[in-house]
Amino acid sequence: MAKKKTKFMCQDCGYESPKWMGKCPGCHQWNTMVEEFVPTENDRRRFVTSSDSTTTSKPESIRNVKKEKEDRILTGIVELDRVLGGGIVPGSLALVGGDPGIGKSTLLLQTSSKLADRDHPVLYISGEESVKQTKLRADRLGVDAEKLFVLAETDLEYISKAIDEIEPQLVIIDSIQTIFRSEVTSAPGSVSQVRECTSQLMRIAKTRGIAIFIVGHVTKEGAIAGPRLLEHMVDAVLYFEGERHHTFRILRGVKNRFGSTNEIGVFEMKEDGLEEVLNPSEIFLEERSSGAAGSTVVASMEGTRTVLVEIQALISPTSFGNPRRTATGIDHNRVSLLMAVLEKRVGLLLQNQDAYLNVAGGVRLDEPAIDLAIAVSVASSFRDKPTRATDIVVGEIGLTGEIRRVSRIEQRVQEAAKLGFERAIIPQKNIGGWTFPKGIQVVGVQTVDEALNEALGG
After folding, report:
1. In a 3-state reduction of DSSP, which class is residue 408?
2. Same domain for 441 and 400?
3. pLDDT (tens digit, 9 = 90+) per residue, 147-197?
């Protein structure tokens, strides 16, 4: 079989070249030229004939399109079903990304076992381990299902034949960086191989109605063959986050064509695999010390779920000319902005203070509703005044020091009341139009100064 032609394309400006160059002549950037597969006329013809939609489809009014309700496949893992939007959609292609060793293979192997136990054939294809090595890992996780088939293969042609023979409902590809097509001359893991293999898997999923999960590694350097290259091709993108030194893992849905985005599922890594955390708020708050200055609890929304987490701040005089600003789990630039507001609008002299902020439990928060909790934590540590252990603080801060309204305040306060909190400090604009839960006092504030007086007692 004749080898396919390849070209080198700049990933920044799209400049094409028949050979590799270290510096792109178009944008003058270094190391941006990557090898890509050049499809021939036979490839285009084969793609057209293999796709039913391209040969028979015609434009029609959206009113005349018939709806076909497809039942989702429940995985048996509540947290995973939540992130997927209610289960696996047949014929979908999902990408699971994350750092090596974070637990992607463990989660997918446990999911495969639960589906196979309920008579759903599953094909687990490993390009990184042999069948015996996969069996050892399955024994450690307690996985022993008759309809779970394991294959150690990296050639996409043989993988396609195995899918035809077994006819599974779910296929796991672990990982996409190891799979290759023989027609493409570049090495496995290159841009051309990853893109071509994913395109072929997408055609298999859509034409045969098989759900496919592919695993992609993310390196700290942002390797070009990472899953970010494939986000536009797949139906769902799930990122597995967490620190290796923490036992908690967060599965975050950043793209989902069949459900809401930014949903999260919380897991705890244990010796026998991943275990679901159905109420993460209790876990994140169970080690909180009462009476400590610089600690504030905030109700954050992650998708449709309310999560209560602790924000900690430590303010100490600096020994250097430029004070340090260190933040873990929250945006560093947002912290600097809020400290500037505290200094300008409240009068806290923070320009000669080092600031260290942390979100307990290894969670990452990125919504503006946590602004007020950050400000209260910083002021509490600076004044050495502890906050009340039964308070939660929610609100967005503007540059003029005003407290702006936040979304879904009812769910936030409801979750706080459920966990035994007695007072909620929220924006004044959010008060009205809803009924407060029993057992919790709701206090509305309009400015940062007013919120600090409520939280710290003046």
Report:
1. coil
2. yes
3. 999 999 999 999 999 999 999 999 999 989 899 988 877 778 777 788 889
Mean pLDDT along residues 388-405: 95
Question: Burial, 249: exposed, middle or buried (Cβ in 10 Å; 0-12, 13-18, 19+)?
Answer: buried
Q: Does residue 416 fall inside a structural domain?
A: yes
In a domain, 256, yes or no: yes
**Cut 0.85: pTM above it:** no
- Alpha carbon distance 144, 114 (integer Å): 10
Alpha helices in 76-155 (DSSP H): 78-84, 104-117, 131-141
Query: What does residue 412 show for φ and ψ, rounded to 5 degrees?
Result: -65, -50
Q: How far is CA 167 from CA 73, 80, 208, 301, in A?
A: 16, 23, 9, 40
Beta bridge partners of 443: 425
Angle between helical axes of 191-208 and 41-50 (0-180°, round to 10) = 20
Across the range 422-447, mean pLDDT stands at: 94
Residues 338 and 217 in one domain: no
**Residue 323, domain extent:** 283-456
Amino acid type, 232: H
- CATH number of the CATH domain containing 158: 3.40.50.300
3-state SS of the chain: helix, strand, coil percent to 5? 30, 25, 40
Per-residue model confidence (pLDDT) at position 40: 66
pLDDT, position 195: 81
Q: Does a structural domain hold residue 52?
A: no
Domain endpoint, select from 254, 276, 298: 276
Q: Do 21 and 135 lie in a common domain?
A: no
> What ranges make up the beta strands (E) of 242-371?
248-256, 264-270, 273-276, 295-302, 305-317, 325-328, 353-359
59-87 mean pLDDT: 87
Q: Which of 178-187, 312-321, 358-367 has the lowest mean pLDDT?
A: 178-187
Is the pLDDT at 453 greater than 90? The verdict is yes
Please give the Cα distance from 68 to 406 (Å, whole number): 37
Same domain, 290 and 325: yes
Domain boundary among 213, 248, 276: 276
Alpha-carbon distances of 324 from 293, 378, 381, rounded to whole Å? 19, 14, 15
**pLDDT reading at 51 higher than 50:** no
